[in-house]
Amino acid sequence: MNKAARTKQFIVEKTAPVFNEKGYAGTSLTDMTNATGLTKGSIYGNFANKDEVALAAFEYNIRQVTNIVREEKAKQDTYRGKLLAYVHVYTNFLKHPFPVGGCPILNTATEADDTHPALKQCAAEAVSKWKDSIAHDITLGIRQGEFSPQTNPEQAALTIIAMIEGCIMIAKLTGKMHYRNAIMQSLETFVHQL
């Protein structure tokens, strides 16, 4: 990696938590310079504008979450176990290096739905990839006889995502972690019933 690429990566790594906590609109140039210790010229010498930094920060945050889930799924020998890895990760999220500020999909989707089309598109693509990954595991699980052949992989995948994202939103909004635990128990039951 050359110096310019290292500098861009540094900017992304340092601003990603800020964007995830404060959102696009709430993150100022001062926030970015404070997070990186760089000047405005250094930041905008590597990125055309705030949009580019925000999009790169979102992708960085998504990769963090994806890597956590991938590692937990890799420990499982069954497709049911791979789905239950989501329950483990989101029930014990404090044990994992999640992005500061929580779920980047939830944070970005709620802010960018009417205000930032490019970020909205990134969040939508992240959900679509997530859905496809879960549906793929369910399809393979059906073939292996782990799940009922009547299971609709896409519908089940969307239900799993909705339960996880809803769980995060409710727990974050209310501050009641026992709500998170209750929803994760429901998700576990759902996976066992597939």
Automatic annotation (TrEMBL):
Gene3D superfamilies assigned to the protein according to its UniProt record, in alphabetical order: Tetracycline Repressor, domain 2 (1.10.357.10)
DNA-binding region positions on the chain: 28-47
Occurrences of domain HTH tetR-type (ranges): 5-65
MF GO annotations: DNA binding
Keywords associated with the record: DNA-binding, Transcription, Transcription regulation
Domain of life of the source: Bacteria
Pfam family, one: TetR_N
InterPro entries for the chain: Homeodomain-like_sf (IPR009057), HTH_TetR (IPR001647), Tet_transcr_reg_TetR-rel_C_sf (IPR036271), TetR_C (IPR011075)
The name this protein goes by in its record: TetR/AcrR family transcriptional regulator
